[in-house]
Amino acid sequence: MSKKRIPVILDGDPGHDDAIAWVLAFASDMLDIKAVTSVSGNVNIDQTTKNTLEVLTLLGVKDVPIARGCTKPLIGPFFDAPSVHGESGLDGPVMPESKLELCGLHGVDLMIKVLEESEEPVTLVPTGPLTNVALLLITRPDLKDKIERISLMGGGLLHGNWTYAAEFNILVDPEAAKFVFESGIPIIMAGLDVTEKSYITSEDIDKIRAVSNEVAVIVADWIDFFYKFHRDIGYLGAPVHDPVAIVALINPDILEMRELYVEIETEGEFLRGATLGDYSSLSGKAPNVTAITNIDREAYVDMIVEATKKYSEVTM
Ligand code: RIB
Ligand code: CA
After folding, report:
1. Three-state SS string across the chain, please?
2. Domain total for the chain?
3. Which CATH number belongs to the domain containing residue 122 in this structure?
């Protein structure tokens, strides 16, 4: 008997690595994707929403509601990352024109609708700033028990990537992250501790490109572009962060994880946005996070190659 699919909501700021996370998600027969919501982050909400519609058109997605989420962080100023992802947020290959429409709800309202209508708890997979997820929890705390867990890309226990203390997704909206990490909902955290080990090399890109269908070629072009910024600062390959949050759900055996109490710093000239892990249990608080600490990188690359093969028959 086939294993029951995990109901999920994808929330992201595409973003090359968000897009690749969604390639993995829609190729998996282990996930039942109930909705996709955009959030501002890598670029502004107009662009991340446009990118969301185009990525899902490329993947041949039909009958999954899509909604535009929050325009800016809860408290702080919005800032983006065109230096990494380009002005469009998905620079590199030309994308197919979107053939999809937004569902007419705000992203947070779509999350609420899915949770209200679901007969079972749903897993949230945010791969951008946590603004939408925090607003969901703030506006409808009664729906907490309809959230199975949150598998997120964000944070870095040992260092940041936007400041030396803070990773981009958390730093864009630390107040939202604090609210989510203190929510009591089980969190799987794919932070830089693992995502900087999940890098894709030029040889790996060639393997993906060799699949030779439209999705594979575009994924290879996305990683080529994404690698440009990172090659210049000494990375061995492109640290394709976001798909690890999907891997945690569909193939956790290639990961190493540990339970940890993690809190979010929202103050401080230097430490705002830091994710601080309590390794010595000094806080006396129970772990709130399953932190991913390592990955079988080769197996990760193979997952991306195999996922792209699933799109050979996609008709747009
Ligand atoms: O720090 C990496 C994260 O920030 C990734 O999710 C990337 O897409 C950006 O959102
Ligand atoms: Ca992202």
Report:
1. CCCCCEEEEEEECCCHHHHHHHHHHHHCCCEEEEEEEECCCCCCHHHHHHHHHHHHHHCCCCCCCEEECCCCCCCCCCCCCHHHHCCCCCCCCCCCCCCCCCCCCEHHHHHHHHHHHCCCCEEEEECCCCHHHHHHHHHCHHHHHHEEEEEEECCCCCCCCCCCCECHHHHHCHHHHHHHHCCCCCEEEECHHHHCCCEECHHHHHHHHCCCCHHHHHHHHHHHHHHHHHHCCCCCCEECCCHHHHHHHHCHHHEEEEEECEEECCCCCCCCCEEEECCCCCCCCCCCEEEEEEECHHHHHHHHHHHHHCCCCCCC
2. 1
3. 3.90.245.10
Domain that holds residue 273: 6-309
The pLDDT tens digits for 206-244 are 999 999 999 999 999 999 999 988 888 889 999 999 999
What is the model's pLDDT at position 232? 86
Distance in Å, CA 13 to ligand 2 centroid: 5
226 CB under 6 A from ligand 1? no
- Ligand closest to the CA atom of residue 156: 1
Q: In this structure, is residue 61 part of a structural domain? A: yes
Answer yes or no: pTM beyond 0.90. yes
Residue 316 falls inside a structural domain: no
- Is the residue at 1 inside a domain? no
Q: Looking at residue 236, what is its pLDDT?
A: 92
Q: Could you give the residue numbers annotated as active site?
A: 241
